Amino acid sequence: MFTRQPLDVVVVGAGVVGAACAYYATRSGLSVAVVDGGPVAGGTTGAGEGNLLVSDKPPGPELDLALLSASLWRELSEVLPRAVEYEQKGGLVVAADGASLATLTATAAGQSASGVRTTAVAPDELSDLEPHLAPGLAGGVLYPEDAQVQPALAAAHLIRAARDAGASPHLGEPVTAVLTGPTGAVRGVRTPAGDLLAPAVVNATGVRGGEFAALAGVELPVLPRRGFVLVTEPLPPLIRHKVYAAEYVADVSSASAALQTSPVVEGTPAGPVLIGASRERVGFDRTLSVPVISRLADAAAALFPVLGSARVMRAYHGFRPYLPDHLPAIGPDRRVPGLFHACGHEGAGIGLAPATAALVVAAIRGEQPPLDAEPFRPDRFGADPDRFGADPDRFGADPDRFGADQDCFGADPDRFGPDAG
What we know:
By secondary structure, this protein is of the alpha/beta class. The protein is built from nine helices and 20 strands. An eight-stranded mixed sheet has the order 6-7-5-15-16-17-14-18. Strand 2, helix 1 (16-27) and strand 3 (32-36) form a beta-alpha-beta unit. Helix 1 (16-27) runs parallel beside helix 5 and helix 1 (16-27) packs parallel to helix 9.
């Protein structure tokens, strides 16, 4: 079998997390290959809204990671093309009643103590920020650091920048094996086009992260959590911030497998309004759920009555990579020397991608990480996957599961317009 020349790092996965890993690893001077069985952003990244949020994370390790990532995204916005549509528009979280507002206010106080910028918004001030909001809301909190990016284009331009700096993309080449040496340490990966040899392999395969870990002989209990997004017709500028209901934060943190919906509404530079958010653990069921779509549309129209007359042009869905403790797996896997993980971010992977890459690259290079990486330790789950309720058959037997089917996540390939990547 043909063997490519030795590398320093093989990054498996060309979504935004893998793209960020490739970008920062190459920029640090490492020799990098990026491998994916499909195209850039062919999985969860291509089905995302592009949220770069600090507002939805309570104080703790993930918020620390989000704050680091927010600063890195601001730096990236200065070097990546404007086509990535980075906007630091801010997030507005609104509460429908007094009880919801009390919970939101307490959360914001804890976040503020952790370094997040927050501003309380009185009921009569909401219309100054969002003129089309429904009346009668109890109040809200403004998060100026929340931002948005076009995720597929961000991933494409990160890959392009890495390639221009010397990285080698290998798209359409699914990984079929993780290669190890006599001591059990990683020495590369195998694809149908040949072997790619490197002493470090990064698992950035998103919802397939558990399956990829299994190729290396370890357990990582990543589960898919399905979500739908509605896309309206292009509209005049109506919504200035990312706006969502306070209940969204609880939905993000929930361990329930049942359907949960809470309104999340934001405009885009191109005009369409994106409407979410739903969460449910139904495996890789790709069935279009009309009841879920109806709930999202009704909730968005209740929050912004002006959307009641807007046409929904399409709906799509993706699968968030969920881990049981709601923290991603980032860094070296102590069970297999040379194996590094960068997956399990659920719905926050786009926002957390740069900070994740910074932690991974520091670990590969043996350098001090920019923050404490111990909470994200990939082998923290132990050896008993059943205690997390994992279904051993949840992944099925799809031989192309590492990205060969670019439409496997229900993403509409035309939804982003012309390919600027």
